[in-house]
């Protein structure tokens, strides 16, 4: 009888202790999740500040080069081949993973889902530091490069390295993608384009576990960059009035031309530095520094022939055309195309976005001055930038949105989408695989199916191993 009376009490006591244990466990998990979130936000703020300061350093290097070019133009031109060779040698010697845009490395790091060193040297603090230093040196020698690709790799490296000890959700892949998106957003003060870029280019698809982290990191990093640089449109805000209906007729034509030019650029770049084998690429692999010197000589000739408008990111030239300044649209497009291809093929660090915008501005400027349509020249320049960028990277939504944010032109969203989608289609006929994803193949380590899980994670592509040869 006593046992029957005590048994329910004992069972009730056990239930109470179990409930208390579950509540305590839930509280511990919530505390860990909160600490993880706070650390991610802190790294995002740091990333936004790093991107803003890198942008300042990038612009300062461009101004230093302009000063040197005005003082001694021939000396600067003669130094370009040797500068390209030095940067390529230094990149291969000290930071092989810092070569090129950096976006292919981020894509490869995010897709390396097997065990082992996640991301390797592709997204680390060491690679980020060398990326900043070597890209600035490239600018001092007059390379036609942008800062967005390096910013993507730098911010992804910060996110991956400074959140490395965290466990749970969001995972490391989500953090790498979020860092890449924040890099684009901070480079151009275009947060919406940053999110779309992560979905369209880096990840290829939205994942429920990824998109919230991407948005959170982009907004936080963008806020930090905004606090340092203020609210600004990359190309400024222009009062252009209502959009002319004839721009709808010009947009498809600009899209086709931008797709042809952008597709040709990505195809030529793939021939030079892609994973395939051809005489030109084989020579680059055997003699990378010599190849870089030749690229520098080509860039110097392009700069001399154009009167020095091919140096750096091309921001001033593009903005000049946006303000209807009597610039050289077609000559800018041709010379910037050649200079950017030479700089990208040389093997030093540098992005494609900003130089592509300058090339596209030249294409749009040529249309604006052709007299075929009656519309404001600025509208054609904006559409030309978006179309050519879409042709190069084959990311039409990112290209349209980033130009809308950079120029604050919501009225052009329809023509922008028409031109970028057409450009993407035309470019895909020339170069089937988007250039960033094509180049990312060289940065992919072996997966489990290769029998060597993570064996080459963190190393440069096999073709780039060993000391550089002259």
Say which CATH homologous superfamily of the largest domain is assigned: Clc chloride channel
**Sheet with most strands:** none
**CATH architecture designation of the largest domain:** Orthogonal Bundle
Mean pLDDT: 79
Protein architecture, described:
By secondary structure, this protein is mostly helical. It has two domains: 43-66 and 74-234, Orthogonal Bundle (Clc chloride channel); 247-442, Clc chloride channel, CATH 1.10.3080.10. 71% of the residues lie in helices and 0% in strands. It has 18 helices and no strands. It has helices at residues 2-71, 73-94, 103-111, 125-140, 148-162, 172-188, 191-203, 208-229, 247-273, 279-286, 288-306, 315-322, 329-346, 353-368, 377-393, 396-407, 413-430, 435-440. Helix 9 packs antiparallel against helix 14. The longest helix is centred in the first third of the chain and has 70 residues, at 2-71. It starts with a helix and ends in a 30-residue tail after the last helix. The model is unreliable at 114-119 and 446-470 (pLDDT under 50).
